[in-house]
Amino acid sequence: MKFSAPLGFTTVVPFLALCATQNTAVKVSSSAIPWVKIDGQLNRISAGSSTNVWGVAANDEIFRYTGDDSNPWVQIPGALTDIGAGADGTVWGVSSIGDIWRYTGDEGFPWVKINGQLNRISVGSSTNIPGALTDIGAGADGTVWGVSSIGDIWRYTGDEGFPWVKINGQLDQISVGSSTSVWGVAPNDEIFRYTGDDSSPWVQIPGALTDTGAGADGTVWGVSSIGEIWRWIGD
């Protein structure tokens, strides 16, 4: 069985692989799965750190991870379609009509509305909150990556003129915890992690997800196309 990868990607064996060869099926052992499934159903997820993980469900309900896998989620008042959690505990979100909200933690309604309109949001820390491109990921150390509407991958350099450098590959979604923790999802739900080497920037990770959340401390969570929630337990 041979797996091919697009330019800039390195492929490793997926966690579930079926190959039909003369009525023979080959299946990778489940022991190779580097993810643990967490109870619940979410559409979007963001992880600032192992203690700051937030998600949004299909009906726009907001949930925060409790730290207890046996009872993992507590619902937070409000309604959002995307959410960004920072390493320092900062949380921002956007609603279905593009309104921007910052979490305050106050009793009652714990959000304050911020002027502006966004479709997506990503939070690295309280001072690094960009909103642009089709998808964007901001790390706690100031690292920012983005994905365009055609899947091109860009890393922010801050240089004058055009402050972005294009990185080989094609992704639908990207998440950044730091300069060394960058994860993305390709159009076919394949998962990729940045290698740190722009000449061969991506290695494929076993699994299939539609959204990932990477924290500054190396924490990574994801959700699948059917809303299942997974936490990375690999290296």
TrEMBL record:
Family annotation (Pfam families): Tectonin (PF19193)
GO molecular function, one term: carbohydrate binding
Protein name: Tectonin 1
Family assignment from sequence similarity: Belongs to the tectonin family.
Keyword terms, alphabetized: Lectin, Signal
Residues making up the signal peptide according to the UniProt record: 1-25
